[in-house]
Structures are given as structure tokens and as C-alpha cells.
Amino acid sequence: MRMENVVLAISFMVFLATALHAINVEMKEPIVKSISDGETVELGTIGPGQTLALTVKGTEIGKGGLQANWGVLGVLEVPPGWQGFDSDVYAKNMKATIKADPNAPDGVYVVKLILTECENKTATCEFQQGLGQITFYGKIKISRDVMKTAVPQVDVTTGVGQPARYPVKIENKGEANDIFEISVEGVPAWEFKKRVYVAAGETLNTFYEIVPNEEKEYKPTIIIKSISSDSLMHKYDVHLISKSDVIGDIRATKNGVLLFPSTLEPLYSLMGILGYLIQ
To answer: Which of 32, 85, 171, 211 is the most exposed place for a label (fewest CB within 10 A)?
Structure first.
């Protein structure tokens, strides 16, 4: 009985020592969470082709209660068609990135990562600082609903050579920062493309301008798309009438003109003021 008690006591001490020295990882992005070895973490939702950043704290308390540095946060496994990029070595905040397949179907995907004291994610080294390594898994949901857009005003009248301004709203509902491109089809000789940055979880209100070069009625299509994937694209049919008349030109001038001689600057400034008065 005494021998059994000794064995049990030793086993408990080994278990306790292991538990006390277990290292957890402090994740900062895209979620704030303490992660342990072998854990699976929900990393949120992104769209096809978008890039998700994973950031963890680069230092922890190691052997002897001293501050220790992680070597690298590495991406070990990603689904077919995806890409993984390791963090910088010995960074204060370890940031690895995962880029989804631009044509990935909606669904849940799993990636595998490692945080190690070594400089190389696949290397074997002596864990002199007492941190060792931690392997964990991340679940990423792919959804085409991460992008929400609107063009509140679809009917605009302007003068020939004057900008027709359409308001545009872009909401990025996912966990990935992204750049969105606004363009138009259906207006000859107008190929202007506007790019805007929208952070994860943010909404941007901007505008897109079309400058017609002749007196005509147009039925263009405004296109809003993520540069990450053509799968994230919305189209809006709008209406544009360009008229060559003095009142219309004055009203449109409040939105600005593209080019004019410097000698006519006072005249255009006055017309811009009148443009706000004439509705």
C-alpha cells in the first residue's frame, strides 16, 4: 500500500509540474484568445480570395520566469488552392497570413499552424528558453455574403463634360481587410476605375463619377468588386442623362470639373456656388 501511495504521489507531482509549465499562446488577431497546444480555434468568416491575418504575441514567460521570444509563427497545412505565409522571425507580434482560393466554394475550412521557439517552422532545435512549440488548428468560414454594397441614387442628370456623381456604400462584414474596385460599363470612352480600402468590419461611404462627353441618355452599369476575387462582385444598373444647357452646367459644376483654364477659375468658382443654390 505504501509503494502504491508513493507511485500515485510521484505521478501527481509529474502531472502538476507539466500543468504548471504548460505554455499558452496569446492570439491578438482576428480574435483575442488564449490558445493551448492541439486546440482548434474559430477564426471567423472571409470571402473567396481574401487574406486573413493571424497575429499572436511574440513573447512569453519562459524558463526561470524570464521573458522568452518565440521564433516564428508558421503555416503548416492549408486546403488545396490556398496559400499560407509565415510570420517574420522573432517579431514582437507574430503575424502569419492565409489567402483563400479565389474560387473556393462557401463552407468551413481547416488550417494548421505552429508557433515554435525555433527560427524555422520545420526545424528541430534545443528549446533553451523553455517555450518549446505549440501546434493548433484554425477553422475559417468562406462566404460570399461578407460584401454588402448599395448605390442609393441611381438617376443623375448632368451637363456634357460635367461629372455625374453616384453615391456608393461598401460594407466589409468579414474578418479580412480588403480593397474594392468601382468601375462602370455602358459609357463610351469612360474607363475610370476607383479603388478604396475597407477594413474588416467597417463600412465606407464614397462616390463614383461618370463624365459624359456628349448630350445623350445613358443606361450604364456600376460594378463594385473585391480585387481578391471576381466571386465578390455586385452590379447596379443606373440612369444618366447629359444635357447641354446653362442651368444644368451650373448645377453640375458644384461636383467639380476635371480641367479648365486658370483664367476662368473665378468664373467656375462662382458657378460652383450657384450650383448649390439651384436645385
So the answer is: 32
**225 neighbors 180 (Cβ within 8 angstroms):** yes
- The CATH number of the domain holding residue 211 is 2.60.40.10
In this structure, are 30 and 134 located in the same domain?
yes
d(CA 29, CA 168): 29
176 and 209 fall within a common domain:
yes
φ, ψ for residue 46, nearest 5 deg: -135, 170
Express each pLDDT in 7-65 by its tens digit.
444 444 433 333 334 578 899 999 999 999 999 999 999 999 999 999 999 988 888 88
179 within 8 A of 226, measured Cβ to Cβ: yes
As given in the structure block, the three cell numbers for residue 83 are: 496559400
Q: Within a domain: residue 153?
A: yes
Q: Is residue 258 part of a domain?
A: no
Each residue's pLDDT tens digit, 227-250: 999 999 999 999 999 998 655 555
Q: Which domain holds residue 132?
A: 23-142
Q: Is 47 exposed, middle or buried (0-12, 13-18, 19+ CB in 10 A)?
A: buried
State the pTM of this model.
0.78
